[in-house]
Amino acid sequence: MSSLYDPAYLSDFYDRYGGEEWLRLMRSASARINYEVHLHILRKYLRSDQEILEIGPGPGRFTIPMAQAGANLTLLDISREQLRLNEEKTLSAGIDQRVIARHQGDIVDLSRFGNETFDLVTAYGGPLSYVYDAAPKALQEMVRVTKHGGYVLFSVMCKWGSTRMLLSPILSLIPIHGIDTIEETLFKGDIHDQLGSAHRFHMYSAKELKALLAMSRCETVELSASGVIANQNEEVLEGKWCDAAFWKRFIMWEIEASRQPGLLDAGSHIIAALRKP
User: Fold this and answer.
1) Under CATH, what is the fold of the domain 7-158+199-275?
2) pLDDT digits (tens, 9 = 90+) for 214-267
3) Nearest-CA neighbor of 230 among 240, 220, 216?
4) To bridge 155 with a disulfide, which of 29, 143, 151, 271 should be the other Cys (CB 3.0-4.6 Å)?
C-alpha cells in the first residue's frame, strides 16, 4: 500500500467534515453540474432489484436515487459519521428499507464480500483518488465482487481540469513553497501535506486513468469528464438556477461536452464505467 495513503486520516477527515458533504454538491453551479453528470451516467446502468455495493456513499446523494429506482443497497464508507448521516437522510427520504447493510470499511479491502456478489459496484466522488498507489488493488477488489456481466462505476479527481479551476489559489502557493514544488506536485498529481493541504488525494490525467483501467481486464464501456462548461463560469450561471427550463437544457450541454474524448482532461472529475466480462 502506498505510504501516502492513510485510512485513519481519511476516516477522521470525513468524520469532521460531517454534514458539509451533503451540501457540497449543491453549493455552486459547477458542483450541481458535477452531480448531474454523475447521476446521468449512473442511471444508464441502474435497474430495479439490482444488488448494488456503493462505496463512499457519504450522506446519500446517490444512495437515495438508487434506492428510489428499486435497487437493494449495501453501503461501505470509511467514515462512521458519514454512515450515520446516510441513515438519517435515507430515513427522511423514506427509502431506508432499500439499504440492506451499512459497513465502515476500506475500499482497498472488500474481503467481507464474496466473489461476484453485486450487479453494480459504484465508487463516486473519488474513493480511488484517496488511496494513491493502492488504486490498482482497490479496483481489483471492486471487480472481484462484481458479477460477470455486471458494471463498475467510479470517478477520480482530474488533474488538469482541477488545475484550470483552481489556478488562482495554486499560483498563490508559489511564493510560499516555490515554483519547483508546485510544478512537481502538479505533474505527479499527489496532493498531501507537503503543501499544507487539509485534504489528501491523487489527481489523474485521462492517460493515467486509462492505464489503470487496462489492469482491470474489464471492458471500458464509457469514459466521461464531469463539469466542463460550468467550470470558471460560476457568475454567469448563478442567476440561472431558478430557470428550470434553461437549467435542464444546460445540463444536456454539459453531458454532451463531457463525453467528448478531447475534453476528458477538462473537468473536475473523470467518470469510468466498466463491464466485467
Assistant:
1) Rossmann fold (3.40.50)
2) 999 999 999 999 989 998 788 888 777 778 899 999 999 999 999 999 999 999
3) 240
4) 271
